[in-house]
Amino acid sequence: MAMVIAVLALALTLVAAGCSSDSGDEESPGPTDEESGDLAPGSAAINIVDLTFEPTTITVASGETDIAITNADTVDHTFTLDDDSVDQAVAAGENVTITVDLSASVGFHCVIHPAMTGMLQVA
Question: Which domains, from first to last, does the chain contain?
Fold first, then answer.
């Protein structure tokens, strides 16, 4: 009797595994718009965490783009475009939104922490 139960248990396990819709061959989805920093047309988001801009590269359309910047660090930062057309202070814990009007890609950095850099890539 124990042998019959063991065989039935094994058979049920194999059937259940065969019915699974997860074959393991499926590709994982790419980053969502929010994960990549690309949001609705004309908007983007940057988080400042652990002395780093996240994401470091953001693709935006040519023209005006609203950028929401969240400073999750415990120290102040700036969001400064490399061409100096924008220099926005972002205090620790602060959320700010700026509007940029771009026709070409431009880098950005933090004046206080020069190693913090990123790129606004115009598509």
Answer: 35-122 (2.60.40.420)
